[in-house]
Every structure is written in C-alpha cells, then in structure tokens.
C-alpha cells in the first residue's frame, strides 16, 4: 500500500533515495523493486531489523533490478548522519504529524536532499483527521501519537519556507478513512468489534487482490475523502 506516487516522483534505477520514518518498509521495498539505492531510516531498531531481513530476502529472490541496493538505519530524523545533498529523493510518509519539532525535521530533509532533487511528504488530510479526533481522544492523545492536524495551506507554507518548491499535490487512501472512523467510534483498542473487523477484511481483500471495483472507487473518492494528502516537491538547483 503506497501513499506516494513513484511515477510522479520520477523514480529511476540507480537513484539514491531515503525513506524517513520508514516503519516496516512499504515504500522502501517499492523503491528497491524499481532499482533505487534506498535507505530505510527510522528510530525503531526492531522494525529496521525486520526491514533488513526483508531486503535480504528480496535480493535473494531477485525482486529488484541490477541497480537495486537497500539498507536499514536506526536514527533520529532531527539529526540524520548524512552529508548535505546526499540523496536524489527524500520521502517522509505519515510521520510529521507525530513530530513536535516538525520544522526542524523538514529542515533536515531539505539539507540531505541534493539540489535539483525531489521529495514527497505525506500527512493525514485535515477533514478526515479532524473527524477521527472528534470521535476518539485515544486516537491522538497516546504517547507518540498524532500531535497536530495540518491544513494543506500550513504544511505547504512550511515546506516552501524550508526552501522547497511544491510541484504538485495528491490524495490517497479514501477507502481507509471509513475504517479509521469506525475504529475511533468503537474504540481504537477494540479489535473485536464486528464493524471495523469486517471493514478491515475488505481492505485486506483490496490490498491482496486489487479488484477493479475497489480500485475504481478509490480513484473516484480520493479527491473527496482521501485520508492522506501528498506534497510533491523539488529542491531548486544551485545557481
């Protein structure tokens, strides 16, 4: 399940990419499949261990291209161990809403991105997220949870202020928004309730099978109720 559109980002074999806040690696693995030299970067050491194991399995199965390389690194997104202008592509997906010092995190992303490089930043969309917050305090009050709701204007301003050009925006995961509304309504820890359980089965079916009916529905609904907003960005080339 990808939030960013790698075709819009122009991912090509051999490009140096970093997936910041990679989690269990959903974007990292797709970058690897497309031939990138990709780093998964996250503060969770256990998840980075699992990503390392999966990358090794993918290499063994020949899932990538001849240019594919992958590594997983544990670290702090506010202080990343890379030289200025290291990466051709920087991705941070569904992370900034968790980070109290978001402007500092954005500055680090810009620092490690090459002049002329591209980036994608995704966060929960304002109105679906507001509904989740209204339905459930637990959704946003747990340690490490969401600490803010971005408006598109606010996040766009912060990204431009950090030195990035916004080249486009998009929306993703419309079918996931009702699932989270259901979860928030019945309790985020209530995994036994029949409504979210049934809806989750639908999402798994969609993920595994990709039937035309759900794929078409999501494309139609994304502009209206996509759960995530995606900013596509470019760092200006040096004069």
Automatic annotation (TrEMBL):
One of its GO terms (molecular function) is S-adenosylmethionine-dependent methyltransferase activity. Keywords: Methyltransferase, Transferase. Pfam families: Methyltransf_11 (PF08241). The keyword Methyltransferase applies. InterPro entries: Erg6_SMT_methyltransf (IPR050447), Methyltransf_11 (IPR013216), SAM-dependent_MTases_sf (IPR029063). It comes from the Bacteria. Residues 18-120 form the Methyltransferase type domain. The keyword Transferase applies. GO terms for biological process: methylation. Transmembrane segments: none annotated. PANTHER family: GERANYL DIPHOSPHATE 2-C-METHYLTRANSFERASE (PTHR44068:SF11), ZGC:194242 (PTHR44068). This is SAM-dependent methyltransferase. It comes from Dietzia natronolimnaea.
């Amino acid at each position: 399940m990808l939030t960013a559109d790698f075709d819009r980002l122009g991912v090509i074999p051999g490009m140096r990419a970093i997936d910041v806040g990679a989690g269990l690696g959903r974007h990292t693995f797709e970058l690897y499949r497309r031939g990138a030299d990709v780093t998964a970067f996250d503060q969770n050491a256990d998840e980075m261990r699992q990503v390392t194991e999966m990358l090794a399995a993918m290499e063994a199965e020949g899932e990538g291209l001849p240019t594919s390389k992958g590594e997983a690194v544990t670290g702090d997104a506010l202080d990343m161990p890379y030289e200025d202008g290291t990466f051709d592509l920087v991705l941070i997906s569904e992370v900034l809403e968790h980070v109290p010092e978001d402007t500092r995190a954005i500055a680090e992303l810009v620092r490690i991105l090459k002049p002329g490089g591209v980036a994608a930043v995704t966060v929960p969309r304002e109105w679906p997220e507001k509904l989740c917050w209204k339905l459930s305090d637990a959704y946003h009050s747990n340690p490490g949870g969401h600490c803010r709701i971005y408006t598109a204007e606010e996040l766009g301003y912060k990204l431009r202020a950090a030195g990035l050009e916004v080249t486009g925006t998009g929306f993703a995961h419309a079918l996931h928004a009702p699932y989270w509304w259901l979860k928030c309504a019945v309790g985020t820890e209530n995994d036994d309730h029949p409504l979210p359980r049934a809806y989750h089965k639908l999402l798994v079916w969609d993920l595994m099978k990709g039937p035309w009916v759900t794929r078409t529905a999501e494309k139609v609904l994304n502009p209206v109720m996509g759960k995530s907003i995606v900013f596509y960005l470019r760092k200006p080339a040096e004069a």
